[in-house]
TrEMBL record:
Gene3D superfamilies: Mannitol-specific EII, Chain A (3.40.930.10). This is PTS system fructose-specific EIIABC component. PANTHER family: PTS SYSTEM FRUCTOSE-LIKE EIIA COMPONENT, PTS SYSTEM FRUCTOSE-LIKE EIIA COMPONENT-RELATED. SUPFAM superfamilies: Phoshotransferase/anion transport protein (SSF55804). It comes from the Bacteria. It comes from Lacunisphaera limnophila. The gene is fruA_1.
Length: 159
């Protein structure tokens, strides 16, 4: 059961300088990091559901953070990719500028872990100092180390 963000992160699934400033392009740029993930059974199907979910309602959490996600049969296990933008990506449907995007895919049959992860993410990014640390991480490895540090402060040490 992967209920910590850090357990889902890997350097090749993190892009710290998104080139796109438009929502759909930035979403694709970040989601594409999951294309080769062995837990993504059908990337195009997953990506289409991600876009469909995004059209339903904004996935902005506020504070320059968005959580585009899909509960889908196109992933075998929970997958996560991170996109960071220094200039920000405009999410027109909420009129918010997003600098941190967490793209999440979860199997339809696993709502519990999904809800635990979303709750953990919300606690992680709630404080401005936490968001600042994530925005300042110079490398994907440093980003993961920052997440680990924040999780241990918020959730306690990993078991």
């Amino acid at each position: 059961m992967a209920t910590r963000l850090s357990s889902l992160l890997s350097p090749e699934r993190i892009i710290l300088s998104l080139q796109s400033t438009k929502r759909t392009a930035a979403l694709q740029e970040t989601a594409k990091l999951l294309e080769a993930d062995p837990n993504v059974a059908n990337f195009q199907g997953f990506y289409n559901e991600l876009l469909a979910r995004e059209r339903l309602d904004t996935t902005c959490l506020g504070n320059e953070v968005a959580l585009p996600h899909a509960r889908t049969e196109h992933v075998k296990k929970i997958v996560l990719a991170v996109g960071r933008s220094t200039q920000g990506v405009l999410f027109e449907n909420s009129n918010q500028n997003v600098k941190l995007m967490f793209v999440l895919g979860t199997p339809k049959n696993n709502p519990t872990d999904y809800l635990i992860l979303v709750g953990a993410l919300c606690r992680l990014i709630k404080d401005e100092s936490s968001r600042t640390a994530l925005l300042a991480a110079p490398t994907p490895e440093a980003f993961i180390a920052t997440v680990l540090d924040l999780e241990s402060k918020i959730l306690g040490p990993a078991k």
